[in-house]
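Q: What structure does this chain adopt?
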Amino acid sequence: MHTRRIGSVEVGAIGLGAMPMSIEGRPDEERSVATIHAALDAGVTLIDTADAYHIGADEVGHNESLVAKALASHSAGREVLVATKGGHLRPGDGSWTVDGRPEHLKRACERSLERLGVEAIGLYQFHRPDPRVPYAESVGAVAELLDEGKIVQAGISNADPEQIRLAQEVLGGRLVSVQNQFSPAFLSSRPELDLCAELGIAFLPWSPLGGISNAAALGSRHLAFLSVAEELDVSPQRVCLAWMLSLAPVVVPIPGSSRPETIRDSAAAAELELSAEQLARLNAATS
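A:
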């Protein structure tokens, strides 16, 4: 698979979003492990997880533990950059809350270290801004984790341009990634993508195919992608990811998957070549 960089680490151009394997509608563990193994076999070397990817309040970190188990049982597991996040919570009633207090982020990181079974987390990202806590304080906790060697690289998620610039300042120029929602159906993070390209920071689009419930309908909802897919005899989803890679060399999509066949299809987007004319059509349809 073609590669891209996240800070000092070279990763496959397409990553794997592991969230669908742990939230509502998740598959059994056997299929989830098979999905992660299929990703590794296809050249994926970036897996995105978070302590908040679970259902019940008594299973915080379910996804991190699952990812760790799957990696430990595959020969390529040690070559993977695991990106996890802290600062988002699920109380167990189906809702999502936030906690950006420095003390919470430090505790959350310690627990993530235990679940992942590592001495230092490859990429740790502040999951979502907490309006009750100054952003610089939350990111400052991540900077301290970096200084202490608890994490190797630092990132942020669900951030706007002002927060990206502030995080870069607080981290002393060590911000390596921004993980925001971005897809043909959700283009409002384009300013953040462009800023990351300007600053040389990896941009990791989450839900790049439109989300768990919408990914299958991508072609019917975005006809330009369906048209190009038919020309190339591939899926509209694969075309979408290839288009996304064309936007900037810092883009590393992390499509969510819970089936081996879907992550194999997504991974193949790294090698899909779109013509200038096809890219022009896709760009026109998403402008």
